[in-house]
Each structure stands twice: as C-alpha cells, then as structure tokens.
Amino acid sequence: xxxxxxxxxxxxxxxxxxxxxxxxxxxxxxxxxxxxxxxxxxxxxxxxxxxxxxxxxxxxxxxxxxxxxxxxxxxxxxxxxxxxxxxxxxxxxxxxxxxxxxxxxxxxxxxxxxxxxxxxxxxxxxxxxxxxxxxxxxxxxxxxxxxxxxxxxxxxxxxxxxxxxxxxxxxxxxxxxxxxxxxxxxxxxxxxxxxxxxxxxxxxxxxxxxxxxxxxxxxxxxxxxxxxxxxxxxxxxxxxxxxxxxxxxxxxxxxxxxxxxxxxxxxxxxxxxxxxxxxxxxxxxxxxxxxxxxxxxx
Length: 298
Description:
The chain is an alpha/beta fold. The chain has a single domain (2-283), classed as TIM Barrel (Alpha-Beta Barrel). 44% of the residues lie in helices and 15% in strands. The protein has twelve helices and eight strands. Strands 1-2-3-4-5-6-7-8 form an eight-stranded parallel barrel. Helix 8 links the parallel strand 6 (169-174) and strand 7 (199-204).
C-alpha cells in the first residue's frame, strides 16, 4: 500500500505545477498573468453577472496573444438570444482560437434569454457547429444549493451521455474546498453512479482569512468552511501565506483508486495572481510541504 500511495502522490504532484488559473473578464490582468505564469498555461475567464460577452471575447483574444490558452466561461442565463450565443461562439473561435469552454448556469436567478441552464447551451447544437472540442462543467463536492446529491449526480450522467452523442469531450472542474475529505467522498460517489468523466480539482489559492471566507460564502462552499474558520482561529494571519496544502496533502496520500479520475488542478487566485504563482513555484521547488501544512512548519 505504501508503494501504491507513493505512485499516486507522484502523479498528482506532477500535475500541480501546470495547474490552470482564473482571471476576470474585465481584461486588466493580462500583464500580471505574463509576469507570473508560463506561456501555454490554461486561463479560464470569468463570466460575471452583467458581463457583456464582447468584453469576454476581447479578453480571451488578449490572453491568446499573450501566449496562454484561454478557456472562457459561458454563463447560460446571461445570453440574451440564440443569435447572441452563435455570435459569441463564432468570435471566440475566430478571434481567440478557443476550442474549450467552461459552461455554467450563471449567478442570476432569472435567465435573460432562452437558456436557463448549461445543458440548454449544450442542446442548442451550436458548440459542435462552431468547432469546439471540449467543455468543462462545474462539480460541487460539498453540494449545490439548488440540487440534491442524487440530482447533481444524475446531471453528470446526463452530461456523459451528451458527450457520447455529440463527440464533445466533457470534463468536470470542481468548486474549491478547504479539506480533502468531501472531495474524496464525492469522487467515490461518481464511481458508484458510473460517472467516468475526468475531473480537475479546484483549489483556493493563498489569500487572507477574510478573503477566503468571503469567497467561500459567495460560492456556497459548505462544511469544509469549518476547517478554514478553525485555521483562522488557530493560526490567524499565518494563513495568509499558505496555499491549499492540507487539501493537496489529503489527495496525494489517498489510495490510488480514490483519485484515478483526477487529471489536473485549477487554482482560484483569491489572493492575486502573483501569490498564486509563488505558491505553485514553491510547491514545485519543494519549499511547500506536502507532508504537513505550511503553517505548521517552524
């Protein structure tokens, strides 16, 4: 068992330095991105409530020109019409050479057009028509406020079926957690329900305690928020300079079968791109401990 754990630990460790990262759709972070991340890095681009998709296209094109791989979010409820969706997709392909998308429903309750959910976008047929080859969808290890556990798992099975019909590769990018247990439990549920979609694990990048809690509440992170609050109480400001070490340690030391679906990591840079990049570099250089959280080091 020790040898098996070492193998999977090495596999996951090798994935972390090439983690994808996220930037705002506002288009003002391209320079900072170039200063801190290697060319070719996957860069997801948010689609926030009220975003004009033309700005998302401009940002994706700028990311591509800077030498990165843009992965725009597409928020279904923000798209006003089928024509707008077709225009968005066509311009992403033509102006940013984008072949991958991250589909989300969006953070508004009422749809601004005919698309109420990310599956409505998929069923439009426009993703295939415009030559996209892969999409990622959101996974929620700690649950989703509008879906029970079985409902969320059934949606993933449906996505798997759509992938087989459409020929579009589908993967899952998870919401971040503050501990590994809910992620490992969720991965077990996927296997139990026959979901074999590849999984990218979302990690909360280094940030102040207040920032981490703010984003956790905004994003609906559930039980593992307790872990963050406990750390804040025990370590205070020391948490500022740590990354998601406890999560990565838990995943790396799990039995191989528990994490076989994991194909990569995505870093939410809540404390900024520079701090996220520094954490990744420290990890790659061995300055970040995988045996114990950084805040426990002398």
